[in-house]
Automatic annotation (TrEMBL):
Family classification: Belongs to the NADH dehydrogenase family.
UniProt entry keywords in alphabetical sequence: FAD, Flavoprotein, NAD, Oxidoreductase
Source species taxonomy: Bacteria, Pseudomonadati, Pseudomonadota, Gammaproteobacteria, Pseudomonadales
Protein name: NADH dehydrogenase-like protein
Xref: PANTHER family: NADH DEHYDROGENASE, NADH DEHYDROGENASE-LIKE PROTEIN RV1812C
Transmembrane segments: none
EC number(s) recorded for this UniProt protein: 1.6.-.-
Coiled coil regions in record: none
Amino acid sequence: MKHILIIGGGFAGLWSAASAARQLEELGKIAQITLINPDPWHSIRVRNYEADLSDTRVDLSSVLAPIGVNLLIGKATFIDTGKRVVTAQVQGSTLSLPYDKLILASGSHLVRPSTPGVAEHTFDVDSYGAALKLQRHIDNLASAPATPGHFTALVVGSGATGVEIACELPARLRAAAGGGDGSQAAAQVRVILADRGPTIARGLGGGQPVIERACRELGIELWADFALASVDSRGVTLGDGRRIEASTVVWCAGMRASELTQCVAATPDSQGRLKVDNCMRVAGIDHLFAAGDVAHALIDGEHPSVMSCQHARPMGRFAGHNAVNELFGRPQQPLNIDWYTNIVDLGPWGAVYTQGWAREAVAEGAQAKNTKSVINRERIYPPRQGGREQILAAATLDLQRPPLLKPMARVS
């Protein structure tokens, strides 16, 4: 039996599997589909900045079993594209997994620099486990011995993730300090959002002024041109010798594609991603597809895809569909997404919604927050109560267009 192997159970991997299963049924063909993932969960990673993590994971088997996809819990460690074999660690044993078509969807990870203390003394929200560790740390602050900067948090990196966790932290720290804004401990709460660039959130386009305004109204200090010398258990030392006492330092700067891309004889982009065509095929390797954060696709024929579920989900669908079609000699279907949106959650303040590659701000506050909630809590989830038909129906190649909003009135 022909075998399609998928590495990764994130947005790209899960939807690759569902789309492949759907297309096999459409063609009336039979093939084995196996998805390998280090744990049994599909993580809604984009929600890891939230305080409540209880609904941010979906049991992979609940989605894959009804559609006949085999779930293998293990870690892929090497890809031999010449022999078409993936090496994996599964329950302490080394397995060799042969395949006919491979879809690489192993995602990305946070990159920490070699700056002294960063690896040992910073938190992050890159994974469920890391976010849970941060959550428990904040919850334990109330009972921990008081130190200088006890309720101070420093967030390093002002991309979307850094902004989102920074905007959540004032309320979370106040709750840990005793709740009411008037309490002595709550008055000690301090949150700093720092970036080495000349402007906070400079990569977020037209959303930047809104983000800056929201942060200031939430009481968040904005530190640009931030030069970090070292981190320790009590805070950080800056390049000019200044000191920030902080019990909580959150690292949100820098992402890189999974190291499995290094197994492929191809020139990666600056983030380690493999360049793929509009059918998600890796150039020069006809049996290898890539989707999500490991793939660099010109998503509209001009702009590179971004590391986000917005692109990972459709890239996965097209990779799965096309892997099946290529396996059985059917035509490939190209992916083209001629829009781009970005919604950044700003905590109690609301959110900012931008459209287009220039990221023009078209909504802010409660309106943008409501849209963000619909996307993060409903749209990006697989069917969790449905059966085979509902899951396969959700894997169609039809693209979900974003809600259209009128541009905000300009303030002179």
